[in-house]
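About this split. The held-out portion is used to measure sequence recovery: a designer receives only the structure tokens and must propose an amino acid at every position. Recovery is the fraction of positions where the proposal matches the reference. Here is one held-out target exactly as it appears in the evaluation file.
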């Protein structure tokens, strides 16, 4: 049996943590949700995650800070940033470090699917 790719959702917004994993499962992925960067780093999922869906703005460690920490620890995980801010642009340094795209909340299923396909093509 083929193992489904693990997508980790890291977002301080509870509604995102509850709904996005369900959508990911419908799209054919295994999914785990985390409320913070620390919760993700302390989990047993870091080495298994093939893609992160990562909120840019979170209390404590931000999404970009988590991405830099994972790189420092030598984890190269493709990242899709998500944000509720008005501009979905990603700074060039985040793209250079493995960010695939930034989706503006609320995003649609097809945009998410396209971003996941691009992220997993890099993995």
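Reference sequence for scoring:
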């Amino acid at each position: 049996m083929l193992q489904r790719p693990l997508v980790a959702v890291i977002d301080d917004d509870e509604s995102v943590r509850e709904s996005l994993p369900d959508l990911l499962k419908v799209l054919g992925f295994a999914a785990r949700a985390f409320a913070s960067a620390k919760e993700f780093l302390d989990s047993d999922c870091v080495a298994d995650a093939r893609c992160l869906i990562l909120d840019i703005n979170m209390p404590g460690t931000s999404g970009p800070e988590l991405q830099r920490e994972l790189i420092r620890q030598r984890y190269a995980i493709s990242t899709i940033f998500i944000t509720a801010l008005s501009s979905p642009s990603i700074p060039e340094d985040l793209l250079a470090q493995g960010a695939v795209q930034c989706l503006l909340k609320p995003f649609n299923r097809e945009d998410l699917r396209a971003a996941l396909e691009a992220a997993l093509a890099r993995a």
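Annotator remark: Residues 109-122 form the longest helix (14 residues).
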